[in-house]
Amino acid sequence: MSPKPIITHHCPIQKLGQSPYHHFFGYYNKSTWSRDGRYILANRVDMMTKDLGLEDCAEVGFYAADNPNGEFTSLGRTTTWNWQMGCQSQWLDQMPGRKAIFNVRDNNPNNPYPDFASEIVDADSGERRRLPLPVYVTAQNSQYALCVDYRRLFITHETIGYQAPEQYTQMSLAPEDDGIYYMDLATGEYRLVCTYHQLTNFHPVASMDKAAHWVSHIEIAPDFKRVLFLHRWSERVEDETCFLHRLISMNPDGSEMYLLECSDHPIPQLQDDFDANAVGTFDYEKSEWQISHPTWQGNEHIMVWGPHQGSIHYHLYKDKTQHADVVGEGVLDENGHMTYSPDGRWMVSDTYPDDTTHERILFLYDMKTDQRYDIGSFYADPNLGKINRCDLHPRWNHDGTQVCIDSVHENQRQMYLIDVSEIVGRQ
C-alpha cells in the first residue's frame, strides 16, 4: 500500500518570553508545562550561541502559560548546563506545591560526582533543597531520578556533557564503580544500579574491548516501572561517526535488563587516514547505523529511529521482545526527536536541517490513520555548528493540544508554542 500524501497544515504559533533575552529548554520528551498546564519552564540567557565555559550562567524559571510574554519568574541560576539539554530542569508535579528540579554546580568530594549536584526549588516559598547527584530524568511519580556522570559525557559526547574544573585525562573505559545511579528524591539516598563494566559483559561484542563506554537518552515509562537507555561505546570518542549503539531496557533497580537492538558494525572511520573534518555537521544523525532518540509509547512500547533486520526506520518495539514494527514507511524517512501525546495516538517529531536549505520540518504523525501533517518549517543557521546548534526538540503539553519547540529561525534562540488542537481535535 502506498503511503498517504503528506498534508501541510499551518498552526498558530507564539514566541515565549521577551527579547533581548534568549530562551530555550533543551531536550525532547520532557514537558515544559507543569501538570496543571499553568506554567512553562524555560532557561534564560543573554547570548544566542557560545562555546560554554565554567562561568557561563543560565537563569532557570518559568512563564505563566496564559501570559507567555509576561513576567519571568526565576527559580535560580546555574553554570551546569549545555545547549542540547539545558540543566535538565523538570517539574516535580507529584510533590506538594510547585516544585522543580535542575542541575547545579557543587564542590563535595564525598559525592560520586563532586562537581555537580541537583536542587529542588519550591516556587512559592523559595525553599531550596540540595541533592547529591545531578539528574538525567525524574520519574513521573516524582519519587526518584536516574543520574549519570556529566563530566564523563563531556569527554564521550560533548554536546550533552558539562564543563568541569578538571576534566578526565585518563578516563576509565568501563569502570565497575560508575554507570547509572538511582536517587531517591525525598531523601537524596542513591545507589548504583547499572555499571559500565556490567554493560560490557551483557551480550558483549568484540568492538567493546578497547572502547570507552557511556549511556544517554535515559527515559522512564509513564508508570515509572521500566527504564530505557542507549548504551554507546567507541574507540574514538572525538568522532561521532565511530559511535556504536545499543537500545536496552531494565527495571529502575537494574534488574530484568533486556537487549532490544544492537547496531554493532565495521567502522572504516577508525583508520588512521580517515578525515573526521570532512564529515558534515549532521551526517552522524543521518547515519544508517544510528540508534537514536528512543521514547516510550505507553508502558510497553518503545519508539526509536534505528536499524532493525537490515533496514533503518522509525521502529516501534515491544519491550522485552525482539519484535519491532516499521512506522510511517515512505513518509517518516529520517531521524528526528519524537515524543508521544499523552493519549499515545499522536507523535510529534522533526527533521535535521536540509543540507541545501537548512530548513527543519516539524510534523505530527497520527498512529491510528498513518497520516503525516507537516506543521512548520524552521531555518537553522549552519554556522552554529555541532555544539551550539539548536534542534527543535518538540515537547507536548499535558492535554495534547500544544507543542513547544526551541528554534533559531528568527536569529534568536527562543521557545515557541504551537497550537495543534485543530488537527488533533477533529480526528
TrEMBL record:
UniProt cross-references to InterPro entries, sorted A to Z: WD40/YVTN_repeat-like_dom_sf
Protein name: Uncharacterized protein
Lineage: Bacteria, Pseudomonadati, Pseudomonadota, Gammaproteobacteria, Alteromonadales
